[in-house]
Amino acid sequence: MFSRILHWTMAVMILAMLFIGVGMVASLSDYHWLVSIHKPLGILLVLVAIRLVNRLLNPAPSLPEGMPAWQRFVAHASHVVLYALMFALPLVGWGMLSAARYPIIRYGPLQLPPILPHDGVLYAVLRTAHTVLALLLFATFIAHFSAALMHALIYRDGAFPSMASWRQRRDQPG
Amino acid sequence: MIARVEQAPLQWHLIVTIGQPDDPTNDATTPWPDNREHVDVGTLTIDHIESEAPGNCRDVNFDPLVLPFGIAPSDDPLLSARSAAYSQSFTRRAGEKKEPSAVQTPDTGMGK
Questions:
Q1: pTM for this prediction
Q2: Secondary structure element (H or E) that encloses residue B46, with its range
Q3: HSE on the CB side for A40, CA within 13 Å?
Q4: Could you give the ipTM of this predicted complex?
Q5: Which domains can be identified in chain A, with CATH numbers?
Q6: Which residue in chain B has the smallest CA separation from A128?
């Protein structure tokens, strides 16, 4: 149950993050309030760390039997890419704000310390990386979502309910 | 300006205009009535000039919405628009190859 709460909470936050991200860089009058939602959502970094630990302690249910090897490979690879990007994006965001010496996520008078030296070129590179990685995360999300729908609607093999159902998972998954 | 500062320091007064509750803060094109109270809160004195350089002003974004704790922005939409445009221009500027400043001053000499 904990894994599912984490999954769906983060799914909502990450999607919000991606859309707020593309929205804010394209807006003028809404820029400030979108940025002020976008930056504190970087708390996702904490959630993804908890999630990785949880995943290592409670391995994901096994994939449905009879699934072709290439699909198993793609399923595992896409999860690795998703985890890598979920770590990379907030870290690159934190790093790029550090390199530009912007204040980093402020909760009242509290703010995060910079994690990189003040360097304009470094900032510019990380800023570009942040966009590229975000688009990559969106593409990976689409693949992940499409695969989930494929399992739910076409294969009907039990892979989808293992994350989407709120009922306790059966002892013999799949 | 470089020549004028060499002759004598330049000074500006920082005047704060105290608004009344109904004065518009979200439209910079609407002037407040002339009879609002003005307070001279300080004098800005420029006694020398430095050209852009690292550690000076070159690698910083002067964003009007990066504010110290305790100071809140008004509802003026120009602030957000400036913040967005400055962020964009700062990002482009930051990634450029750094050349010595095009403006040189006697104080700083060549590209300090």
A1: 0.83
A2: strand B38-46
A3: 10
A4: 0.78
A5: 2-164 (1.20.950)
A6: B91
